Amino acid sequence: MTKSKIAFLSISVALLVLLLGGAVFGQSRQKSNIYRPLSIFAEVFDLVRSNYVEPVSSDQLLDGAFSGVTDAIDEFSYYVPPSQMAAYKNFSEGDDNGMGLIVTKRFGYAFVMSTVPGSPAAKAGIERGDFIEKVDGQPTQKMVIWQVRSALDSNRPVHLQVLRGGQTKRDEFTLQRAQFHPLAITEQQLGSVAYVKIPYFEKGTAAQLATILEQVRKNGTRKLIVDVRNNAGGDVQEAINSADEFLTSGLITSLEGRHADKRQWQADRATVYDGDLEVLTDASSASGAEIFAAAIKGNGRGKTVGLTTYGKAIVQRFIPLNSGGGVFMTIGHYTTPELKAIKDGGVKPDVTVDLTAQALRDPNNLIRPEDREDLILEKALSLYGENASLAAEAKKAA
């Protein structure tokens, strides 16, 4: 797309956001305030159609403007024009598309929020923070996020061109979907500390966690680390049930939204483990993992250690339009026990770990993930008075 088209669409988006913002967010406006941006939009629209260097269809311009409106709401909502509905009906929204890639759009490109442990993407070495420039030769800049996810959800091998921070060279990957669910929770003993890794929240996760906690209790261990880093999808109810395994009272989370079924989840009195607790988070902790971490932190049950979470504890719904298209939109959000929306900035840790020095030592991101120091786990161990070198042992055993 040319710079002129991009400029026009930017103007269109800005005007449409002003025009439709009242309808979306319930703001009241005077008629004069509504008609003014509407008349400006109509004027710009006609000028472009009449004077642009080459003919541009009205549908193309309007589709771009409507897509801009959903982009202005959040990165997870999108508009589907009538011309794409046939393809969209064959698409199923899901977290990891059989490849283990949880993606969104950022700076125009497909952005990797997380790679599910044990998945083809994780085994290939794709990491959180990577940008996918092309899927089977198609630039992701020209694709809406559902189209990226649909292209990844394939039974045949998918070829990716990936750019990661600090590099100019594109890495090439070919992924073949595989069955890697269900994912097991892992447990290790690191000195006097029990270390539990929850890779993904899915059916059975809470029951699995309860069994592990019972064993931790029987072993007499009173120091526990629960790691929900790189956990960015799955079943929210399982995350709520998992948090309840540690709580005897208090609000776990609530669901709020003007058109969502509002609900609150309170902790019950039963708990298996009542010892000390630390929860590890980072920017790839999203959705259920954020609800879990917020519940522990907000109820004063334990410390959160690491980095601020992504900010994607939301509920979405597809809303058909009379035009034949539709909008996939965020209609609700989960909250912390203090009733703050998790999507507004994520869950900030009690103890923040600065990874700047590590990044400066590897500016081109050349060190393999398994060879990097785990500074967050090292910090968590040190808070328990344990030797930080045990973090390296945990990596070897993973």
Largest sheet: 6 strands, antiparallel
Please report the number of helical segments: 12
At the fourth level of CATH, the homologous superfamily of the largest domain is 2-enoyl-CoA Hydratase, Chain A, domain 1
Q: Which CATH architecture of the largest domain is right?
A: Alpha-Beta Complex
Structural class: alpha+beta
For the termini, the CA-CA separation is: 46 Å
> How many β-strands, per DSSP?
17
**Helix content estimate:** 25-40%
- Average pLDDT across residues? 88
**What amount of the residues lies in strands?**
15-25%
Indicate the radius of gyration in whole angstroms. 23 Å
Contiguous uncertain segments of 5+ residues: 1-31
Q: Which fold name is given in CATH as the topology of the largest domain?
A: 2-enoyl-CoA Hydratase, Chain A, domain 1
Report the principal-axis shape. Answer: globular
Number of structurally distinct domains? 3
In the CATH hierarchy, what is the class of the largest domain? Answer: Alpha Beta
Helices and strands, in order, run as: HHHEHEEHEEHEEEEHEHEEEHEEEEHHH
